[in-house]
Design brief:
single chain, mainly alpha, 4 helices
Amino acid sequence: MARHRADGLDRRLAAKGGSADEWLRLVRSYSALGERERAAQVLERARMALAADSAAGGRLDLLARELGLPGRPGKP
C-alpha cells in the first residue's frame, strides 16, 4: 500500500510538480521503503523543480543530511 501511494505521488509530481512538502514526503517515503537510490533521485528532481525557492532548497538539504543522502553538488 505504501509503495502504491509513493509511486502515485511520484507520477503526479513528475507530471504536474508540487509543493516542497510533497517532494519531502516522497523522498522520505522512498527512504523508508529502503530505496535510497530512488530517494536520492527524487531529491535531485525536487531540487530542480524547486530551484527558485531557497527556503525549500534548505529544507531539502536538511532532509538529505538527516537521511544520509548525497548533498547538493558542491556541499557535503
